[in-house]
Structures are given as structure tokens and as C-alpha cells.
Design a protein that fits this description.
Two copies of one chain form a homodimer. Helices cover 69% and strands 7% of the residues of chain A. The first copy, chain A, has 140 residues and is mostly helical. Chain A contains six helices and two strands. In chain A, helix 1 runs antiparallel to helix 5, helix 2 packs across helix 5 and helix 3 packs across helix 4. Chain A has a two-stranded antiparallel sheet with strand order 1-2. Chains A and B meet through helix 1, helix 2, helix 5 and helix 6 of A and helix 1, helix 2, helix 5 and helix 6 of B. The structure holds a DNA duplex (23 and 23 nucleotides).
Chain lengths: 140, 140
DNA sequence: TATTGTTATACTCTATAACTATA
DNA sequence: TATAGTTATAGAGTATAACAATA
């Protein structure tokens, strides 16, 4: 069976991304988190006081979609919101959120190692620079 | 603003994939096609007579989702279906489908060149092997 | 005027379950 | 029994438009 798609970097990029993220999502599911929720927790962890709009821009998630995402995490008592001015709120981790985000961080660290291990040694160091270049070139 | 995610190959893989596929989707939209529809056209083009189930396995799209996808292409007179046995049909391109899939093929070829150009020369040759390894390792 | 946050809505892709018909 | 195709349905992510409140 001919498969012209396998030789395309673009198609392989998509299939690799779907495969890798699928496995990561299954692991995050064990912590009761989706991929986007985990990203928010990690960014709030590194940037306490960050606002939803700032998160939206860093994660390239529309403000409109960030609202229910953050609301879910707040409902689960993982995030606290404190007003910074009349319209925006700074986000920070609750005690539970701190605990859970630490678990996310170590899970993700371990998973990133698995990714590196799966790439043949002679290509390994080239992956992140190549992906970063693509993200930059096509990422708006 | 701290961004721990940028240093993760996994996160960069996802962002690069979303960015690149977003641009490709915008270009395919000019031909009136979605990404998945284009993939089907290219595979039928290379494998006339292929069945939906075979397509499903190659593209890793569930049979249940392939049905309406193929039906749309058939409704638009891009694909023909001819029975191979009592339960499966071989797919082939109509005249219009042949014409359109040729346009898709040259669009995709040009786009893949754009992808390669966006990767710094010293990393370029490493991208496809690294992505293929990840696809293989995580792809079921 | 521009920004923040929100609600409502729709589209794409994906996933599962259940069904018919055929091998 | 296993496979091919179909239908219905749900979930996750994303997109736009419109709105109120605030800077």
C-alpha cells in the first residue's frame, strides 16, 4: 500500500504530535486533568498572580475559552483568584493546587524524558530547535 | 514572564503541529477542503480501489468517522465507489477528483518545502527521522 | 478607546456503542 | 466469529460575535 504521507515532515509532525499528546493525556487523566488544565496549572505555578489574559496569550487559547477552563479549576479548589484591579484577577495555586501541580510537573518531566529517549541519539539534540523554529515561523 | 513549557519538546511538538497545520488548513480551505478530506484524496490517488477500512487504518481515523467523511467527498462527485464484495467498496477518483487531488498534491508539495525552509539548515535533515521515531514509539 | 472577563454558539476532530449485512 | 459500513451521540479543543465593566 502506497503511503505518500509518511515522507512528509508536516504530516509526520501532526501524527507524532497526536500520538505523543494522546499518551500524555492518558497519563494526565490519572490525575483528573486535561492537557489544557495541566498547562494552566504549570504556568500559574511558575507565575503566581498571572491573569487569565496573560495565560491566554502564552498558551494561545482564546480568552473566551479560558474563562470556563479557569472556572473549572477554581471550582475544584485548585486555583484562587484575587483582584488586581477592577477588571482582572491574579491567579494563584491553592494548597491543593500546589500539591497537584507538583505532581503534574514531575509527571511531565518524566514524560519529556520518555520523549527524548524515543528519539535516536543522533537526532535528539536537533528536535527542540527544529520544533521551536517551526512554532516561531508558523505561529503567527 | 516564566514559560517552562517552551523548553519541553513535547509542548513544542504540539504548538509546532498546531501552528503548521493551521496554516496548511487555511491554504486547503481555498480548495474547499479540510485537512482530513485532503489526506483521503491523496491516499486514494496513490491507491485507487482502496477501501474505507484500509483508509481508516492508514490515517488512524475510526471507521465510524470515515463514513461521513467519504460520503461528503462522494456527494461532491470527487470520489466514486465500486463494490469489491458484498460489504466493501473500492474508492477511486472521479475526473473532478483527479483534477482536485492534483491541485492538493502540488499545494502540499509546496507547503512541505516551506516547512523545510523554516527549519535551520543544521537541523533540517534530522526533523523527519526524529518525528517518525516519535510517531512509531507512541503511535500504538 | 482599548482591555478584561463572560456567555452563547458553532465547527472540527475524535471516541464509543450499537446495529445491519457480509465474509 | 470477524470484518465492513453505518448511525447516533458525546467530549475536547477551537473560533467568532456580542456584551458589561473597567482602564
Amino acid at each position: 500500500m502506497e503511503d505518500p504521507l509518511r515522507s512528509y515532515p508536516g504530516y509526520s509532525l501532526r501524527r507524532a504530535s497526536v500520538a505523543v499528546m494522546g499518551e500524555l493525556s492518558r497519563q494526565l487523566d490519572l490525575l483528573g486533568l486535561r492537557f489544557t488544565e495541566s498547562s494552566v496549572l504549570l504556568l500559574v505555578r511558575s507565575n503566581p498572580g498571572i491573569t487569565q489574559s496573560q495565560l491566554s496569550r502564552m498558551l494561545d487559547i482564546k480568552r473566551a475559552n479560558m474563562a470556563p477552563l479557569v472556572a473549572r479549576l477554581e471550582d475544584r479548589k485548585l486555583l484562587d483568584r484575587t483582584p488586581v484591579d477592577g477588571r482582572s484577577h491574579g491567579l494563584s495555586l491553592s494548597i491543593q493546587g500546589t500539591e497537584l501541580s507538583a505532581q503534574v510537573a514531575s509527571l511531565v518531566e518524566a514524560f519529556e524524558s520518555k520523549i527524548s529517549d524515543a528519539v535516536p541519539a543522533e537526532h535528539r539534540a536537533h528536535l527542540l530547535p527544529a520544533l521551536s523554529a517551526l512554532w516561531r515561523a508558523f505561529g503567527g
